[in-house]
Structures are given as C-alpha cells and as structure tokens.
Design a protein that fits this description.
By secondary structure, this protein is of the alpha+beta class. The chain has one domain (21-198): Coagulation Factor XIII, Chain A, domain 1, CATH 2.70.50. Helices cover 12% and strands 29% of the residues. The protein contains three helices and twelve strands. It has helices spanning 2-19, 56-59, 144-150, and strands spanning 23-29, 32-33, 40-41, 72-75, 79-85, 108-114, 128-134, 136-137, 142-143, 154-158, 166-176, 187-198. The strands form three sheets. Strands 3, 4, 6, 7, 11 and 12 form a six-stranded mixed sheet that branches. A four-stranded antiparallel sheet has the order 2-1-5-10. The chain is globular, with a radius of gyration of 18 Å. Belongs to the polysaccharide monooxygenase AA9 family. It holds the Pfam family AA9. This is AA9 family lytic polysaccharide monooxygenase. Its EC number is 1.14.99.56.
C-alpha cells in the first residue's frame, strides 16, 4: 500500500511539472496562419532551458527535422503572432494545460536579431533587441502567461516600423517563475521564427547577446510569484 501511494505521488508530481510546459511552434502574419512548424525552429520536446549561459538560450536546441526552410515575409509595422501549445505537435485537442498550465506564471518576451540568412544553422554571435514584453500587471494581478493562456496560445508581437528591411530571427520566450526564488529556477520555453522584413526605415536599436543578456542577478530572473506584488521583466525595452 505504501509503495502504491509513493508511486501515485511521484506520478502526480511528474504530471504537474510536465503540464506547465509549452512550445512556440507556429506563427501567423497579420492574422494569416503560416502552418505548424512553418518558418519556426520547433524543439522536439517541451523541456525548458534552465541554464542562461547555455547556447540553448538563443533559439533552443534539438529541433524537429527537417527544420523548416521557409522564411515568412512580414511588413515592417506588421504583427507576428507567436503560437504556443503544450507539446511540439501544436494543438492536438482539448487539454486543460494547453497552451500552458494556467497556474504557471511568468512573462512573455520577444526579441529580433538581424541575420544574413534566416535559415542558417549558426545563430551564435547575433545581436538581439527586445521588441515586446508582457510581465505582471499589478492592478489586475495578471501575468503575460495569463494573457497567453486566455488568447489560446497567441502572443501578438508588432514588428517595429522603423527597422531596416532584411532577414531576421524572432525569438519569443515564455518564462515560468514557479520555482524561481533562486537561480537556477526559472524555466525558459522558447523558439525562433525565420522572417523577411519588408519596408521599414534605418533605425539601429541597442542590442544584447545571448548568452549574456541574462545573468543570475538580472532583475526578473529570480522572483517569488507567490509573494511579490511587482515584477521587473528581464532586459530593457
């Protein structure tokens, strides 16, 4: 009886930790869905990245093969909707933890990086600039993760109208802070989309590098979501 009870507890705890997971696996451009895995580097699992010094913090790793060779065209000023679901397969039917467990709390953040070829394998050394963040609203007590859940998994990111035309990677992450009272604890669920931005201007935003943009002492990398009434989203916008 004790053995059965212990096994049941282990199963419940495992299921709970798995249910918090999510995967960015598709995009829509100005409301037009591109299709599952099209122009997105989709990881094979919904395991989080927890080491902010790892190259996996750039675009994740172990992608479903073959990685999409598509590059989605989006006008500067247009909206790219990053679509998250519980598993790498995308939406597979009713699931109380799709796109993520609603008890999972944390911010949603998006960065862009100019790149010679949006389909190239090597993503090291890119310069990233933040274009979107959705953290904690202290008035409503809702997080970016709450908005992601309520929208069915869509995070709507506006591409700045002032950036230069060219190819970019769009890095979108949902960060779980449920175990982030100390580092390591935050869980990063992220992927990169391959974009061709058309139109635009000549702006040169300030940039950061991944790894490097986040450190264990960066505000927002650790947090107590059960006690803190305010929250600073990692990185400057």
């Amino acid at each position: 009886m004790k053995t059965h009870f212990a096994s049941l507890v282990a199963f419940v705890l495992t299921a709970g930790s798995v249910s918090a997971r999510t995967v960015f696996s598709a995009i829509a451009v100005d409301g037009v869905e591109q299709g599952h895995g099209i122009a997105v580097r989709v990881p094979t699992t919904n395991n989080p990245v927890t080491d902010i010094s790892s190259p996996s913090i750039i675009c994740n790793t172990d992608f479903i093969q073959p990685v999409s060779s598509a590059v989605a065209s989006v006008p500067a000023g247009g909206v790219v909707s990053a679509e998250f679901h519980h598993t790498p397969a995308g939406y597979i039917g009713p699931d109380p933890a799709d796109p993520l467990d609603p008890t999972n709390k944390g911010p949603v953040i998006a960065y862009l990086a100019s790149i010679p070829d949006a389909t190239q394998t090597d993503v090291s050394g890119l310069k990233w600039f933040k274009i979107f963040e959705d953290g904690l609203n202290p008035q409503t007590h809702q997080w970016g993760s709450d908005h992601l859940f309520n929208s069915g998994g869509f995070a709507n990111v506006t591409i700045p109208s002032c950036i230069e035309a060219g190819q970019y990677l769009l890095r979108v992450e949902s960060i779980s802070l449920s175990s982030a009272t100390s580092y390591p604890g935050a869980q990063f669920f992220l992927s990169c989309a391959q974009l061709e931005v058309t139109g635009g201007g000549k702006a040169s935003p300030a940039t950061v590098s991944f790894p490097g943009a986040y450190t264990p002492t960066t505000p927002g990398i650790t947090a107590n979501i059960y006690g803190d009434s305010t929250y600073t989203v990692p990185g400057e916008l």
